[in-house]
Amino acid sequence: GLVSGPISSLSDPTSGSSEFEGSPKLVLNFLDYFNFQLHVIFTKTQIMYYYDGFVYGGEPEGPMKITHVKPLPDRMMLLTFSSGETRLFDAAVLDGPVFSDLQNEDVFFSPVLDHGVVTWNDGEIDCDPEYMYEHSYEYSVAG
């Protein structure tokens, strides 16, 4: 893997010595080569992007959104995300005073999507789509 740190603290894996012995140019050449290769990935394929220290395949999609919500008995919900994936969410994980009105079935069974966010009580209660995705389960219709 890629090693980072001050040049004087890097180890030379081929020599067995604990430090590069007067070879900072080797490290810089490696980094120049690596940066060049990374640049080639970005410019030739146009299918990768860099965000928050990571390289991802595909194009950035923007924030995750919920495109469809269906409340179910026992505080469960079927959620369809902007990726097209449908997942099962257990709203019982939404606890605390801000979510207490969801105990009322009239409130729970009346969600409204507002710009891709599930809301209840005229927007007084909402939940982050990323949180709902991370706390939901894969769902598929058997058939």
Structure description:
A hairpin with a 2-residue loop joins strand 6 and strand 7. The N terminus is likely disordered. 22% of the residues lie in helices and 27% in strands. The strands form three sheets. It has a four-stranded antiparallel sheet. With 143 residues, the chain is an alpha+beta fold. 10% of the residues are buried.
Task: Give the topology.
Layout: H1 24-45, E1 48-51, E2 54-57, E3 66-72, E4 76-81, E5 86-90, H2 105-108, E6 112-114, E7 117-120, E8 125-127, H3 129-134, E9 136-138
Antiparallel strand pairs: 1-2, 3-4, 4-5, 5-9, 6-7, 7-8
Q: Tell me the span between the first and last alpha carbons.
A: 44 Å
The strand count comes to 9
Could you report the average pLDDT, rounded to the nearest whole number?
74
State Rg. 24 Å
Helix content: 10-25%
Going across the biggest sheet, name each strand in turn: 3-4-5-9
Counting helices, strands and paired strands, the structural category is alpha+beta
DSSP helix count? 3
* Low-pLDDT ranges: 1-45
